[in-house]
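Folded chain entry
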Amino acid sequence: MFQVGFLAAQDQPPGNEPPTDSPSPGKCYVKCITPDEFKEETVTVEVEPAYTVLKTYPATFKTVEEQVLVKEASKELRYVPAVYETVEVPYISKEEAENLEVIPASFGDDLEEIETYPEVGRWEYRILEDCPSANKEDCMVACYVEYPSKSETVPTKTLEADASTSPIPVAEENASYTKEVVKTPARMEEIEIPAEYATITRQVVDQPARVEEETIPAVTETVTKTVLVKKGGMTVWEEVDCELVGTANLLPILYELNSARITPESEEIIDEHLLSLMQDSPALRIEIMSHTDSRGSDDYNMSLSQQRAQSVVNYLVGKGINRNRLEAKGYGETRLVNKCSNGVECTEAQHQANRRTEFRIIQ
């Protein structure tokens, strides 16, 4: 809000340069509460952790051949031949080994709460309605208003147990072969009986079981949050042109038909009338008010006027003005300046007078 007129001695705008310290004739000041200043930051949240995937390869075997003795050498007596007996000889036909079974990683669900907008508070000034005093300053009330913080809950996953392996034993396999051994040697004439051999095959481990690891990277998500940079609430006086105080000031910009786009010509007008004012008086807050003529539906005109007011705000923000210092308001065809309401025949110039954008100091 703005204050003009007589003020209490302890809350007056600045006067002339010392030593006079008295107000300058013809000057106007606006009492402003400096706004809070914010900035947006992004934080990266790990929603899924990195983990390991294991792939196993079983042991491989190869077949080998061996020469084994199946009949020992002996001597045979001509008259009394040797006597043999058959025995069974065991051997390992397949060695024992281990295979590996994969136990996959297990996960749990979790939630992480991110503060996306901090708790803030500020002084807001209001003038009581039906004030009995001629001096509105006597009816001003300052209220400290707190706005709670805002949070966003982000679902995440936690690694409860990483992937591992469990051994699976491969049992040893046995076999046997038979051979004859001398039970009673030959007597008397000895005849040499040569030994006899046979070829057997068996499987031995060629490559032991192995495991290969693959790391699955973590999954992250970016969250945008608003951070309070500088606390507002300080009361300051800003000198303004007296013609701008207490009224809606015409901003003579023209829009294309059914469009809210800011033209290059309109940018120059905004720079001249508003941008320089807000740069010179950094505590001022401005309301941008946009209107349409009565042609078209009420809902369409209200939406179009809001878009046009917002386009001016967006342009000023792009020029470095804090968005908290600006307020966009579309009024559609609710505030016509002449008789050209629905169904009334008017000239194009009369309709043009209603298609206007205005601004006013609100603090």
